[in-house]
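User: Quick sanity check before I run a bigger batch. Here is a single chain. Can you write out its predicted 3D structure?
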Amino acid sequence: MPRPLGDVDPLVDAIERSGLTIYDPIPRQSGALWIPTSELERLLNSSMKGIALADMPLRTRSKVVKEHVCRALGYSVPRTFRRTQPRFPGQHFDVYVQKSDNLQIWNEELEAARRYVIVRVGTNDTITQVRVVTGEDLARLDTTGTATRKYQARMVPTHARAELVVEADTARLAAFVGDDVDLSSARPTAGPRPGGLLSIKTVFDKLHTLIGERFPDPGRSQERNRGAILHRLVCERLGYPSYRDDGRFPDIRHQLLEVKLQTSTTIGVGLVDPHSNDPLDIDLAPMDGAPIRHCDVRYAVFGATTDPGEITLTRLFVTTGEMFFVRFAQFGGRVLNRKIQMRLPPTFYDDP
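Assistant: Done. Predicted structure follows.
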């Protein structure tokens, strides 16, 4: 039975009126029918929270959830779901139904730009939460090393302790940089906004003062905690009132800034090629129809030494993704494992 028009989200209504199926391609980050990730998560939570899935075999449960996803977004439910990769190619996402925190992805690799809809099922077999993340975001949550289709580079220091690799942001990002940006009431995890980005030179000027900073070392097996401590220091130095981290790329989404802590010369970049021209999964309005890309992201790479119980920041490199492999030599190609299994952290379903 059709929903009353007044109850339908305009984007959902547009998809419904278009007659498109979940298999019809829509240009990413452009066009009236493409659903940005934050909107996708909002629409699915709004429509699917509280849906009961009790007494269903796993395969049936998966099919029923995909049917609900179709209806939530304004698509007709196909008679059968094709075995495409991803399952919803039109909006470029897959759906995983999780009653446990052990996420398993079989027979395919994580794809950096693909969206992954994670549907959480509570102990009473009803849907309690939906999160939508990219493959890059999922790879950053992996602590087992199984999601290792990753780019790597070599850090070759010069005599300078702090190096601004490029004096200006990419031409495409320059239009969004502000002259007087106040971050005192902003959140690091919020989406970037026009005029709200510090210039890459300002980022460098604020962060190079961290060189020489010391902090307790949680241990080599605690790389994520090491990174979190540095991330907190960076947020403070940039002028944020508090530290927040939602595990998404880039680390400080509000400034399109990725932060790296290096105690060795090998830099693990992740699934994304830093100088890729692929659109970045953000809601920042495109400039003249041209979306912000991965190569527009800024990188702050900190070199550090470790002593018993302590880490000391010794170097800083600030660059754009566009110039990343110009300054840091890429090596080793991409490492690839077929089996992907990871445990979602307790905070995964928290609001950013």
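DSSP finds eight helices and 13 strands in the chain.

User: Great, the batch can go ahead then.
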